[in-house]
Structure formats: structure tokens, C-alpha cells
Please model this.
Amino acid sequence: MTKDLHLQPNKASPANAATRLFSRLTALLTAAAVMLTPIAASAQQGDIRLLRDTEIEQLLRDYTRPILRAAGLEKQNIQVVIINNASFNAFVADGRRIFVNYGALMQSQTPNQIIGVLAHETGHLAGGHLSKLRQRLAEAQTQMIIAMLLGVGAMAAGARGGNQGGNMSNVGAAAVAAPQAMMMNTMLAYQRQHEENADRAGVKYLTETGQSAKGMYETFKRFSSDGLFAMRGSDPYMQSHPMPQERVAALEGLAKASPYWDKKDDPALQLRHDLMRAKTSGFMEQRDTVLRRYPPSDTSLPAQYARAIATYRHGDLTVAIAQIDQLIKAQPNNPYFYELRGQALLEGGRPNEAIAPLRRAVQLASNAPLIEMMLGQALVASDNKAYTDEAIRILKAAIAREGEAPAGYQQLAMAYGRKGELAEADLASAQAAFLRGDNKTARDLASRAKARFAVGTPGWVKADDIIAAKVK
Model:
């Protein structure tokens, strides 16, 4: 940058050159802010696809509930959100959600291992680390801008003085460059401290809830070993997380000091965890991969679950239904086996047959709006128009509790369309499009719905809200 100023001394005054340089430095600060922000904040700007499943989400709620209670966050309505990514990762982004890749669920062999990760992320939430990091970043930016402006002033003075100001220009260049490195080191050290604090908090929450921290230790130790080669020779002051050896050693001491170090997970919880991993494999992996992971020689319930899912998704529906029926026979009160049966039939083009198992799944599950939406979909897809009013009732109740599922609104739109209630159908379609991020379609449909509703009615107001919504 300094070189550019000296190469073009006649094209702009020192003041204008300083202005251009300041603009470039502002852009540099913005880039630094993105780099220093926790991973989730930048990831949210990409095309992240979320995974929704009642069984897995309920298990994760059961995992986090005692941890959040110990952290004093039980009433904060913190959710665990599953990301469609096969790598092992978990993070927090906004103070009210913990994001976890499905790869982390797949790779956690015991409940305790993923619970340990969730406890660590809860430590970040309880410590307010995101807001503190943003505040520290803002403070560092202010200091950096002041230092850079002083450097710009020195460079401008050097430019005005010609060769006699060469020393002043060099001083200015140094003043511009030094704050960047200082800010980076300071922020990385601050973030490393947050990670260490979250480790300690996580172990504390596990101990207070009578759980072992061994799984947390095992997880970080494994990733420490994986990262040792990549970290070899790196500068420990240029890392956003503590160096692996140091972190694992500190965590081992904390974890082994707990009286629950050797406590095992409850067998019933381990089975739910294994079923969750099997379900994830069945839906997310290719059939050959599923069969290698769960070969026919494995007669365990989780293995049967994974193979049944893989069979319905990639094979013969009739064979899959027979496999699912064996699951139901083994656990006749498991709502998710009935859900699977209904889903397989629905996606196999047999919606009438899907209704009964989905009704049973809704009866057995507690507060399962996603399953209710699937039941509503089966009712709408059936050839029996007598189901239409029931579908509308079920879908509206499900949407009231799960308002961010566009599929629910889309099925509701189809049900209203079948009844000839076009204003309600347009509104529901607009809401579905809005949730999908298709704002143009949402506004177009909402405008049409608004024209069909009487002015001032609830439907008219909702349509007007969609039209007036500002897109971020």
C-alpha cells in the first residue's frame, strides 16, 4: 500500500491518498473480523442445510437438558440444530442454539462422548463468549484504526516532504503494519482462553449432573492426535484453540478428578444412541456403505434399523416394510418405527396405507409436530377428500408449535386448495416460500392472498406482513 502511494505521487494529494488507504484498511479490518469470528457466524452465510428428525432431536434434548440446568440456562429455550455435514464439528453462533454436524453424531460411539461436546459448547453459551469476543474485537478495531490513522498521517507528512520525509514515511508504514499483527495475536489469545474456559465449564456441568467427563476427554484426545502432524512447527500464538497436547493434558487432569470418571452410560440410553447412529447412517450414507457398517451378520436392533432404512431408500419397498415390521415387533411402543413405516409407504406412493402407522406414531410420540406434518401430508395425498378437514386441523396445530417448517405450510396450502379456499391456500404457499428464502415468490403469493382476504382480517394482516418484510 505504501509503495502504491509513492509510485503515484502526482495523481492525488496526500489527504486523498490517506483517504484511499483508510478505505483499504477498513476493508482489512472487516476481513479480520470475519476471520476472528467463531466458525458458525461465517458458516451461516453459506448454503448450510439443516437436518430435521424428531427422534434425534428428542435424544439431543434429553442429552442437553441436565447440562443446561446445571449451567443456569434451562429456561433460555436453547436448541440443538443438526447440520448436514459429515465432518466432526459443533459450535455456537447466536447465544440460543448449539449447532452440531451429523458427522459428530455418527462418530460419537457413546452418549457420553457427544454429551461432553455439548457440555463444552454450553460452556461457551454460559460464559457469553460470543458477545465478549465481538466486544473485544470492536475495542481492538478502534485501537487499530487509531494507530493506523497515526501511521497514515506520518505517511502523508512524508509524501508532502518529498525525500526529506522518507524517514517519516517509513515510520508511518511501520505504524500501519504493526497494529494488524498485534490485533491478531491479541484476539487469538483471547479466543484460546475462551476454549480453555469452556473445557473447564463443561467438566463442571458433567460433574454436577453425575456424568463422566471421560467421553469429552476421549473426543478431544482423538482430535488432538489427528491434528498433531498438522500443528507440528506451528506458532502456538497464532492458533484460535489451545495447542492439542496442552489442552488434552489440562482436560485429562480435570476429568480424572471427577468422582464420576468411570461411570458408564445407562444401557437404555446407549441403545437410543446406537439407534440414532444407525438411523443417521441409513438416511445419509449409500446402501453399500450402510451394509459394510451394519452387515447382515449383525442382528442387533440398530443394525436392523439401518438396513431397513437403506432398503426402503435404495431397494425393494416390500422387503423394507417386512424389515420395519420386525422392528415394530421388537419394540411395539417405539413411535419412530411406526414413523418409518409411514414414511416409507408415503414416499413409495402408498399414502392411504401410510396413514395408520403415522397415526400410531403421533399417538406414541410426545409433542411431535414433524410427525404430525407427515401425517397431514399423507391425509392430503390420499384419494379420500373426507380427510381434508382433518389434515387442515392437524397441520395448523403442528405449524403452531413448529413454525419454521416450510413443508407444513406447503401441505396446508394443498389442503386449502382442495377445499377451494384460495385465499388461505395462497397465504400458506406464501409462508412456505418465505421460509424457503424465496422472497419474490412469497411476496407475489402474499399479494394475491391479500387481494382475496377482506381488509383487516387475520389472513389479510399476515399477507401484508410478508409483503412488508425486509429481506436481510
